[in-house]
Amino acid sequence: MDDFSVAHLLFDGARLTLAREYAGLRKVELARVIELTPGAITQFEQGRSKPSRGTVAALSLALGFAPAFFESGRPVATASETTTYFRRLEGATKGLRSRLLARLKLLGELLAVVEEHVTLPPVSIPDLAGRAPQEAAQLVRREWGLDFGPLTSVVRVLERQGVIVTRAQLDTTRVDAFSRWLNERPVVVLASDKRDAARSRFDAAHELGHFVLHRSQPANDRVIEREADAFAAAFLMPPEAIRKELPERVNWGRYLALKRRWGTSVASIVRQARDLGAISEHAYYRANVHIHANGWDHDEPAALASAPDEPRLLKRALEKMDLELGLDADVLAAQLHLDVEKIRGLSGELSIAA
Prior knowledge:
about 350 residues; Cro/C1-type_HTH; DNA binding
């Protein structure tokens, strides 16, 4: 029996939904491509009817997934908007959110295979729900044995605690990063579109704040986003260390020097200066007017010398599987019924759209 016949007999509508959302297509758009009605796509996805062999072939071609990908009996990882934290979600379309969630689901499937063969670092994320963000950041630093100076690499700190971090070209300015727990493991996806190392470090620390503070809270609430920002600022710039370095009035030269020292944006340093009482609310307001007027909210001066931190944990796990077990990208692709380019995209080597 050929692949199309098997896929026809064992067709799982949930996997069609996953493939369609990963491809970024609405039902009406997919229906137009394969010359069916949107209602027919709905029937397939809800399991109320099964596509013919010819339709499976058309779906496979239109979506870029092998026919075997649609077979039932394979779990679809759960990743809903209420349990996924999107950094800077305002204005993101439903289609974009669905596409990013589909990426997480496929990443979850890849991780499940990786963890069958490679022992990853144990997850060590303290649950500090209910604590003040600044206090939580201090406790996390202490628990992880970090001193209170600048961090060389935020991504490396997270990976040592068992967090899977990847970078992907998201092709949007509406989302800087997103995260959630997958298979009992915290996962962070950072936008590779953002080449600003300082802001990318803050994004990673912000997502850590969600893992630490909001494990049981619904995602994408303005209050918890502000809390994650406060956690990130305190984690990157511990108040007890940076307070004595902040000037008593707005001083751009000093702020730029602090940016290079602490690896954070001028905007976050100014906010920290306000929060720690180094400058007044009025001075903070005028400083933000200056930042906006000079376009620094999009392109700050004094870019960090280093590029954004590159994740290593997942890539090295895949390399280990290849070198020691012979499970290279081609083998994984066959096992997951994905093409090699998608495997590389999920591990952070290619664009999200690959």
